[in-house]
Amino acid sequence: MTGLSGAAPVVTLTRARAVVRRGIIISSIALIGIGVAAVLALGFTPIEARQGLAQKIFYLHVPSAWSALLAFSLVGIAGGLYLWLEDPRLDLFAAASAEVGVAFAAVMLTTGPIWAKPIWGTWWTWDARLTLTLFLFFLFVGYLALRAAVHDRHERARFSAVVGIMGLLLVPFIHLSVYLFRTLHPQPIVLKPSAPSLPWEMLRTLLVSTVMFTLLYIGYVTIRYGIGLAIDAREQSDAG
Amino acid sequence: MADGLRLALVIAAKDVRAELRSKTALLSATVFAALVLVIFNFARDPTALSATDLAPSALWVTFAFAAMVAMNRSFTVEREHGALDGLLLAPVPRGALFTGKMLANLAFVAAVEAVALPLFILFFNVDLSRALPGIIGTAALATVGFVAVGTIFGAMAVRTRFAELMLPVLLLPFMVPPLIGAVQVTSRLLAARPLSEMMGWLRLLAVYDVVFVTLAALAFSFVVEE
Amino acid sequence: MPSSDGSLLAAVGLERSFGHIRVLRGIDLRVGPGDALVVVGPNGAGKTTLLRVLAGLTRPSAGEVWVLGKRLDRSTPETRRPIGFVSHQSMLYDDLTIAENISLAARLYGLADPRAKAARALESAGLAERGSARPRQLSRGLLQRAAIARALVHEPRLLLLDEPFTGLDAPAAERLRELLQERKQRGLGLLLVSHHLDEAWNLATHVAVLGGGRWLLDEAKNGPLAEFIPRYRALAHG
Questions:
Q1: Which residues between 123 and 142 in chain A have a beta carbon less than 8 angstroms from any beta carbon of chain B?
Q2: Rounded mean pLDDT, A42-53
Q3: Among A66, A104, C121, C137, which one is least packed by beta carbons within 10 Å?
Q4: Considering its fold, how many domains does chain B have in total?
Q5: What's the pTM?
Q6: DSSP assignment of B165-200, as one string?
């Protein structure tokens, strides 16, 4: 495999553009799907007894957090595979996944407090989902900062892979710490919908939303990956 | 295996000897720790928050940040004059190189903690007579974990332009589980709670150490070799 | 066959890229006992990269390096043992004395009685009285000698040098030449990268010109420097 270790680009510019186009199509479908999910949530899903209409944000929140977690897991897995296979596409994919993931995490972290304040009277709660997403956000930021600061492509790919893998293994420890912390310091359970027993309509809407968010993740990553390929192809033709 | 350990000790001894001569990392980290403790003391309202409530967090935040100051130097010293190449040229297995660097970092961080702890006792007026062995043990357990991660991240950070900034940005999320665990155990130790209440946290610390020391040692060759 | 031809160092098909820039594009070479290969070439030709690949510090994108008949392999540290390397940086620690730096090297190579070995290395380098000095206190010439003493303490079979004559005054350069000549006669293989052809010429048994990552010329030395220079100019600027 050439690419990072050789002089040929990973793919040609034309192919890269095709990848970006495909990503745009997938993202568009996903955005429509999210619109459908939103309609489902507002019009076709029962209102939750205790929290009222405001609970509906749940159908956007949970999938965003899920997408951020998915994005980060793939960053770590792609990193591990890169160290093993040395395929530069894995590094380009990891970078794309990180950028998309940090966006999902940021959206979730900003909409969360904005919604929580009028409803719960508090900007922030240290509940499991928010805390984990906050950590993912910091891990993403560190990852992207490191990538920006390392100029040699081999080195950047290797370093990113190591940070990605270590970050991925950190996630269970964060989760465990928060869990241990909360069982010993019981706090009012604010976002109750973590409960497993959801009525069918709510579950359905949540599933639709999650699938659509995952599709959106795939679409955005495809776009960003395609852009990464295009940049690679452009640099190759510049280097001559 | 024995040879690897010997080489690790050679490298650790080299780092310790060099640092004892220049003292830059040790001094800055120790002064930093003292300053942080002082600030914690002035930054609280004594009527609202008792010293014992704040104490565990103050101690561990101090340890965490001072450790980062101490660990920064580990690879900057290898970068001057290309000395790391000298280590890489020799038939030294990369795991031994990592272990040596980590042991030296442990020694430095332990030294800073050993100075910070008496200052902490002094400033916060805590009675550690019964809790001291437990606190030392917990400190050891928690420190090993984040020093392992700090060592490998230090090797990466030194290759960037703002190493002193990059190391904390990368390392801090990784310090959270050991910190939470250490603070929880410390506050229970200070309150003379039974061991059973701390077991969950101690297990977390131990598992964290095993996972991250192993991972850092394995990943090190990818970081340090071109 | 690199594994059995008695060479100290052999390389086959070395390639190395940084990003999209191909720095080495298929390099073969061979250094036998008593050989001194001098590599010259314009800046940016890839000379330092070549040395680092041969020393095992940088991994080639393609190709293999053979040291004393064994393939240089990162997972087998022992394959690096016969190599000595003198970089343009000293590789010495500022906070250790010269003697301590060299005995550290001896320890890293697992030598018995490292301090005695270091003392002996310092003596051969004519630095016996400066052993307790710190690197910062030495002049460029003395620092160079210390770096070479460090590289030779484990008695390598092969010495790779990156621009060793840079920054040396005439007596220091002469001293370096004598040292290398003497070792060469004892069977040490040398590979020098050097801009300073006038300094390195007498030492050389082989000359190679690296340009754009390839050999533009690779031959045994067969004439005085005055004859070589015009050919070199033509190649390098052609």
A1: 135, 138-139, 141-142
A2: 71
A3: C137
A4: 1
A5: 0.91
A6: HHHHHHHHHHHHHHHHHHHHHHHHHHTT--GGGTHH
